[in-house]
Amino acid sequence: MKNLKKILIIIQRSNGDVFLSLSLIQRLYENYHPVKIDLLVNDDTLDLAQLLPCINNIYTFSYSKKQNNRYKQEKKLLTTLFKQYDLSINLTASDRSVLYALLFGKKSISAIEKDSHKSWWKKKLLNYYYYFDSSKHILLNNLEPLNILKIKYEAFQKSIYFDTKEYSKIKTKLMNEGIERFIIFHPSAQYSYKVYPKNYRYKLLEFLNTLEVPIVVTGGKSEVDMEIINELPVLSNIYNFIGKTTLKDYLMLSELSLGYIGMDTLNMHIAASQDKRIFAVFGPTNIAMWSPWSNQLKKSTTINKPVQTYGKNTVFQSSLSCEICGKVGCGSNHGKNEFSFIIRPEEIFSEVSDWYETIRI
Hints:
- The protein contains 15 helices and 13 strands.
- The model has no long low-confidence stretch (mean pLDDT 93).
- By secondary structure, it is α/β, with parallel strands linked by helices.
């Protein structure tokens, strides 16, 4: 596989998975240039996928369409993509995504489960495979195909950058608000159980307001975000940007910021890729796989601990064991909409204020 002309990368998971595939994509592009790299992603991650560099075409899968018409979109994908690629690389171990890798690539590489009862047929049919390891960071999992291809790489999370002219819109928005130096506070997440509770969030913003630096509160237009808007306190240094920026705008806003305070979500990984100072609040997420990656140290954390700092990242996590699984940070919400956060706003603010004192001059 030295002269690949067309590669398909299949990522049927969340925005975070798509963003954390960027280092893989760029390394493949550099090694096989002028290769054409296409993506197959879930439709709710399309906005992010369209911002990734080095991508030729993007195809989407929709779970809502699957419910309405079970086989129509599968037929369309099969008709369009069947054996069109020299190599297909699948980053998830689901049965559907593995079948796509087998059907669309002349050669195939895929993540598979360690459980042989689930993966025996995948081992037989795939050209190459690797075990998806939930005890290892998602970036390292996504870079595994490079080991199979014998391509050297660095465990470094790339970011998305834009031409300097494209920053004029977001800079104008900040200037109109009288904002120069600022910190991002991102209180929302894709799932409500990951969101820091209202009373804690309100108190934390009151504390952050005393820093006398603009706190730009960010978010999208989801139901979770709209609830948070209605619960924001009116304070002199708190600026509401929820629903007022595109994803592209946010990437530039994050790059211009001093640091990130907020939930473990895509925005946290963006800040980490830009080497920002991060204060991340975790719920039941699997911290070994999803903690912010440190480009400085070339590592994340695998330790469940109430408060820990490594590199530029400070992670806050509930130290309570889950009443269902008995673990801390197992990665499942067990169907619950809420999670018992025990990290107090005072603890978060103490870490933030100590850091800000060192950079405020």
